[in-house]
């Protein structure tokens, strides 16, 4: 019996070591994923801050420059289009896989799960259908 107890002890010790290695591996993988997600969040925040704070200064400068030769409304419109293009560019730079298409099993346009928005599900008596 002494030999069987010794083997059981070795088995438990081996299982404990394997569990510890698995925990450490998973912990390290989660740390790496967290680092990548932090970087992406930082890039999104930076693009938003640039669009907000620098956008005001750029809009003023561009608007004043365009106002020299154009009507006020045209200068404002051109300035808005330029700022929108810059914000769109910064958002695309922040995406980790901007060139890869979204997975098919994920969410569709506007956060709607494909196949769930059916015309039969819409309440015809709802406020958006009333004349």
Automatic annotation (TrEMBL):
Signal peptide per UniProt: none
InterPro entries: Phage_holin_3_6
Keyword annotations: Membrane, Transmembrane, Transmembrane helix
Keyword Transmembrane helix among UniProt keywords: yes
Compositionally biased tracts (Basic and acidic residues): 118-131
Disordered: annotated span: 96-131
Segments crossing the lipid bilayer: 41-66, 72-90
Keyword Transmembrane among record annotations: yes
Protein name: Phage holin family protein
Organism ancestry: Bacteria, Bacillati, Actinomycetota, Actinomycetes, Kitasatosporales
């Amino acid at each position: 019996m002494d030999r069987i107890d010794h083997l059981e002890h070795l088995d438990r010790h081996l299982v404990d070591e394997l569990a510890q290695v698995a925990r450490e591996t998973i912990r390290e993988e989660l740390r790496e994923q967290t680092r990548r997600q932090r970087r992406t969040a930082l890039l999104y925040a930076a693009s938003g801050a640039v669009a907000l704070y620098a956008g005001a200064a750029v809009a003023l400068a561009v608007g004043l420059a365009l106002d020299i030769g154009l009507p006020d409304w045209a200068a404002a419109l051109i300035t808005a289009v330029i700022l929108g293009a810059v914000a769109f560019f910064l958002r695309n730079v922040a995406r980790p896989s901007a060139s890869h298409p979204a997975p098919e099993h994920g969410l569709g346009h506007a956060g709607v799960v494909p196949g769930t928005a059916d015309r039969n599900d819409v309440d015809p008596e709802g406020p958006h259908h009333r004349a």
